[in-house]
UniProtKB/TrEMBL annotation:
Residues 43-168 form the VTT domain. It is a multi-pass membrane protein. InterPro entries: DedA_domain, VTT_dom. The chain crosses the membrane at residues 28-57, 63-81, 148-171, 177-202. Pfam families: VTT_dom. The keyword Cell membrane applies. Residues 209-242 have a biased composition (Low complexity). This is VTT domain-containing protein. Belongs to the DedA family. Residues 209-250 are annotated as: Disordered. Keywords: Cell membrane, Membrane, Transmembrane, Transmembrane helix. It is found in: Cell membrane.
Amino acid sequence: MGVSSTVSVLDSLDFTSTLARHMADDTLWAYLALAVTTAPPLVPNAALLVTGGVLAARGRLDIVFVLLVVAGSALAGDLLIHRAGRALSGPVLGRVYRGGRRRQLFDWAADRIQRYGVPFVAGCRFLPSGRLVGGLAAGVVGYPARRYLVGASIAEAIWAAYSVGIGYLGGRATANSLYALGLGLGVSAAVATVGGLVQAVARRKARTAARTPSRTVTRSAAGVPAPGAVGAPEAGPAWPVADRAGQTGP
């Protein structure tokens, strides 16, 4: 089979061509679809984002407006997640603490948000489920909304640039949208894989450190091991939890 025949077959199997034509025919619907599928977490819309970039490369959408819609809607979703974590800290903790793995992940995120602040808020966006877990953890521990906004803005600007940009560059490099889509999805998968590996290594180090026995046991005035010390009964979270008024408590 020659090159031209192969390209023809790939064109016939390009499942984004119909979506691309529909988005190009109705630009308002295209921007709305990008916003609606980007704002909530855990919605797999990588193909749609890449398609938006491809259409922008072909002049059917405005690349600047596509980036603003994608980054803006994602940031709005981040702020809602943070607000939900702060307002619903009790139910969130109750659900998280029913699962051992969820609890470890949540505690890990909450601890690092308080340690590293804005850099971790930005970096957490690129970890598996990091957008949801990081946003809820930041709200539960009472991390300031303005600082969270700074970190989330940096993260979403970078995320939108590469998610849409790879489709845009692919659309400029080739007329076949299937190639551009494959490139975009490949880069997205690579980023997710690297983020998952980083998260796994960091959590393993944290578990190892937690299992390392301490040589001393901190005791209260009554002689009972203090909460969090070796030999003490397990208490609640080791970090402050925000109350409904936006303050933090023990």
